[in-house]
Amino acid sequence: MYRDASPTPLDPALVDAVRSARNVVVFTGAGMSAESGVPTFRDAQTGLWERFSPEQLASPDGWEHDRGLVWAWYQWRTGLVRRVQPNAGHRALAAWARDTELTILTQNVDDLHERAGSTVAAHLHGSLLAPRCSTCAAPFPSDGGLDVEPSGPIPPPTCPVCGGDVRPGAVWFGEALPSEAWDRADRAAAACDLMLVVGTSAVVYPAAALPLRALDSGATVVEINPQSTDLSAAVQYSWRTTAAVGLPALVDAVQRR
C-alpha cells in the first residue's frame, strides 16, 4: 500500500479529457490490488518464503527444480487473494463501464476486477485462478488456495487428461505473455482515444509498452500513481493519487453533469 501518498487535486482539464473520450482503456498493475490487501510479489515473501528468490518460486527452472515448492507458494498466494475484497477503485471502474465503452487490461493475476463486476479483456500475466497442465495445457479447476501458510512443499495435482503435473496459471519470469491476451491488449491500446494507467510502474515489458502504443496512436494517456514512474514524463496527465482514492473521484466527476 501507499500509506505515505498525499493525493494531488483533480485537474478540471483531466476531467474534461476523460469525459470527452469515447473509447477508454484502463491498464492496471499491482497498485490497483495493493489497496485491497493483496501483497505484491516481493511483499508476499514472508515466513517460509523468505529463504527463496523470486526466480526459485516463479520460473520454469524453479518449477523443474521443485514443483511441490512452487505449487505450495502459489496455493498460498491464491488463498490470500480469495480472502480479500475489491476496493473502491475496482468498484468505480465497474460502475463507469455501465455507460462507457471501457476495456480493462491488467497485469494482475487476481480476480478482483471480475468480482467487482467488470469484464477483463486481457490478463497479461495470467491468473492465479486458472491453473493448467504443465504438459498438455488442459485447464484445471482452481480449489481456491490455502487458508494458512504451508510449512513445506505440496505435490501438484495430476492432470486428468494426460497425467501431467498441474502448474499455476500465472506467467513466470522468462515466459512469453499469453499470445491471445497480448493481441487483444495491443489492439485495444492502438484503438483507444484515452488510456488510464493505474498502479503500475510501467517498467515490466512487454506489457509496459502498451501506454506507449496508445500514445503513438494519438490517444490521451493518464497515469494514476502516487509516485513518479518512467512513464510520467511521456503522458499528458500524471495524477499523484492511488487507485482506491483517485478512480472513484474521477468517475464521480466525469459522470456529474
Overall description:
The chain is α/β, with parallel strands linked by helices and 257 residues long. It folds into two domains: 1-37 and 86-126 and 177-257, TPP-binding domain (Rossmann fold, 3-Layer(aba) Sandwich); 39-83 and 132-167, 2-Layer Sandwich (SIR2/SIRT2 'Small Domain'). It is 34% helix and 12% strand. It contains ten helices and eight strands. It has helices at 12-20, 30-34, 54-57, 60-65, 67-82, 88-96, 112-116, 179-191, 209-216, 243-255; strands at residues 24-28, 102-106, 120-123, 132-133, 166-167, 194-198, 220-224, 237-239. The strands form two sheets. The protein has a six-stranded parallel β-sheet with strand order 3-2-1-6-7-8, with helices on both faces. The protein has a two-stranded antiparallel sheet with strand order 4-5. Helix 9 links the parallel strand 6 (194-198) and strand 7. The chain is elongated and about 55 Å long. The chain starts with 11 loop residues before the first helix and ends with a helix. Mean pLDDT is 92; it is low at 1-5.
**CATH architecture designation of the largest domain:** 3-Layer(aba) Sandwich
Mean pLDDT figure? 92
How many domain modules?
A: 2
Assign the CATH superfamily of the largest domain: TPP-binding domain
CATH domain class name of the largest domain: Alpha Beta
Amino-to-carboxy terminus distance? 33 Å
Q: What portion of residues is helical?
A: 25-40%
Number of strands: 8
Strand sequence of the main sheet, in spatial order?
3-2-1-6-7-8
Shape: elongated
CATH domain fold name of the largest domain: Rossmann fold
Number of H/I helices = 10
Order of helices and strands: HEHHHHHEHEEEHEHEEH
Poorly predicted runs are: 1-5
- Strand content of the residues, in percent? 5-15%
Supply the helix-strand structural class: alpha/beta
Radius of gyration from the alpha-carbon trace, in angstroms: 19 Å
Largest sheet: 6 strands, parallel
